[in-house]
Amino acid sequence: MDRSLTPQVATAIPGSRDVLELLKPLTWFAPIWAFLCGVVSSGEAIGPRWPFLLAGVMLTGPLVCGTSQAVNDWFDRHVDAINQPARPIPSGRIPGHWGLGIAIGGTAASLAVAALTGAWVLAATALGLVLAWAYSAPPFRLKVSGIWGPAAVALSYEGLTWFTGASVMAGALPSLPILIVLALYSAGAWGIMTLNDFKAVEGDRATGVRSLPVLLGVDRAARVACIAMAAPQLVVVVALAAWGHRTVAAAVAALLIGQLALMVRLLRDPLANTPWYNATGTTLYVLGMLAAAFGLGGVLGL
User: 131 burial class (0-12, 13-18, 19+ CB within 10 angstroms)?
Assistant: First the structure.
């Protein structure tokens, strides 16, 4: 019997490499990118705010995102014992209840750092942690829903981290244009997260996960995901132009046109082409985020 799946007192302390593997550093890139977009969009000079900038990077990457990975692996440990037994928890490299302890400790550490950073950052961090636990833990298990699961991840990885970056630099609630743009990019990220579900369609059907490809079928789900990604960006283009950021609006529009061209190939065979699109179209999406942030922050007068 796998010792990591039964209640016991763990006598071994997990190795640092195993803990790092549990926290999945590769997943930190997306929220840190959105955080940096928030920093740029604030238009504030780093100057004396650099300690808050470093705290924000720690929050959005290893603390909140890392904690969400630990939470997810703890509550998926029984399934992972069958499908991915080499992972740190089912393999026993993180024994007993250490996985749960790391998730709880990461939650507490995240809140402590956020509290030192500012009230708005604390609020965003708390909401992100609530979503992280609700995504993986019963009774909510948002991850089994094709609607709420991608929405929770999109809001956490894009919107709340962008909000954190802007709030860290301003030391206050971000401006209304920043809030509008981060909300739009969060909405678009819902489509990106839906594409991520394409890699596990058969497994989701077998285990009762109601992802959008399972609910609608692969082809219809792909079309919905593309619309969800493109429509908010079109609104961003219009908003930036209306606010006088015409050069940046043109740049975001060009990146959107590039994505639309790539979507044509994606829709021909979504299952086969989704990994390719994630490496190409999603890259253009996040570059558009940064371009919009430059405009909002008034960088180079754009």
Answer: buried
Please state, in angstroms and rounded to a whole number, the distance separating the CA atoms of residues 128 and 20. Answer: 21
Q: What is the pLDDT of residue 199?
A: 77
In a domain, 69, yes or no: yes
Query: Which run of H or of E encompasses 198?
Result: none
Q: What amino acid is encoded at 5 in this protein?
A: L
Q: What is the CA radius of gyration of the chain?
A: 20
2 in Cβ contact with 90 (< 8 Å): yes
- pLDDT grade, residue 35 (50/70/90)? very high
**Which is it for the CA torsion 257, 262, 265, 269, positive or negative?**
negative
Cα 198 from Cα 204, distance rounded (Å): 9
How many other C-beta atoms are found inside a 10 Å radius of the C-beta of residue 94? 29
Predicted TM-score (pTM) of the model is 0.90
Residue 209 backbone phi and psi in degrees, to 5: -75, 125
Residues 191 and 300 in one domain: yes
43 and 113 housed in the same domain: yes
Binned at pLDDT 50, 70 and 90, residue 11 comes out as low
Instruction: Give the structural domain span for 222.
Output: 175-302
Residues 230 and 138 in one domain: no
